[in-house]
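pls design
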């Protein structure tokens, strides 16, 4: 059964048609990576699934349930299945690390602070950070450590689905690979379904079971990661090899 399914999803902002009929299926327990250039609709797709934006038309199903038709408590129940690693980390500067990690547990699930701190410390260890980090503030951490804290927060509630928004942005190649390895391990340990948006092909190749490429608001190719280099799609070929010449270059 598919964990996530999009059928003919469209989204426009005035005259700008960002999503023009997105069709996508993410099998349960798999890691799907959506690749594509800036402005092609990756982030809008993610926001529509999360309910941060309402699609103009189309269907979005989570575990076979039409979430675009849910409101109030029923929608909240579905949203509790999600964890999210935001681009740039999006940590709260005024809160210590442990409270950043436990924020959703305390404020979303009503967990007591002592219990939430214990969970936060477990998740920090899962991403390779020691207990001393728990009482530091985000400004005292390196970029790579901040990203690990963000990952710990994303997995704090043991979510069924985890979204990763450009998880390696701003990191050097070595730290980016460390984060990719942690993502793979954390998703595996949780048995979660993962959906990542990125333009970093090294990251995509490391964490993906399946890849989908979005271009001009549509999924133009999707398949197992092992088929990426033999997609036969000129848009995909140009993008994954970073070539200036090709069908994408002629249309921008």
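designed seq:
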């Amino acid at each position: 059964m598919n964990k996530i399914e999009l059928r003919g999803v469209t989204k426009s902002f005035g005259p700008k048609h960002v999503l023009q009929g997105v069709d996508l299926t993410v099998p349960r327990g798999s890691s799907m990576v959506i690749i594509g250039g800036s402005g092609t609709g990756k982030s809008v797709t993610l926001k529509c699934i999360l309910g941060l934006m309402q699609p103009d038309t189309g269907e979005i199903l989570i575990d076979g349930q039409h979430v675009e038709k849910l409101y109030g408590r029923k929608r909240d129940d579905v949203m509790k299945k999600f964890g999210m690693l935001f681009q740039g980390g999006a940590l709260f500067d005024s809160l210590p690390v442990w409270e950043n990690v436990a924020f959703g547990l305390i404020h979303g699930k009503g967990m007591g602070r002592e219990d939430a701190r214990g969970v936060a410390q477990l998740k920090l260890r899962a991403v390779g950070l020691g207990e001393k980090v728990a009482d530091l503030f985000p400004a005292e951490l390196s970029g790579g450590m901040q990203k690990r804290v963000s990952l710990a927060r994303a997995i704090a509630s043991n979510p069924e689905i985890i979204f990763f928004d450009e998880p390696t942005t701003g990191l050097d190649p070595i730290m980016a690979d460390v984060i990719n390895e942690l993502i793979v391990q954390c998703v595996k340990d949780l048995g979660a379904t993962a959906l990542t948006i990125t333009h970093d092909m090294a990251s995509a190749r490391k964490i993906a079971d399946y890849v989908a490429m979005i271009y001009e608001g549509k999924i133009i190719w999707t398949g197992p990661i092992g088929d990426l280099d033999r997609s036969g799609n000129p848009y995909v070929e140009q993008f994954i090899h970073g070539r200036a010449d090709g069908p994408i270059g002629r249309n921008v």
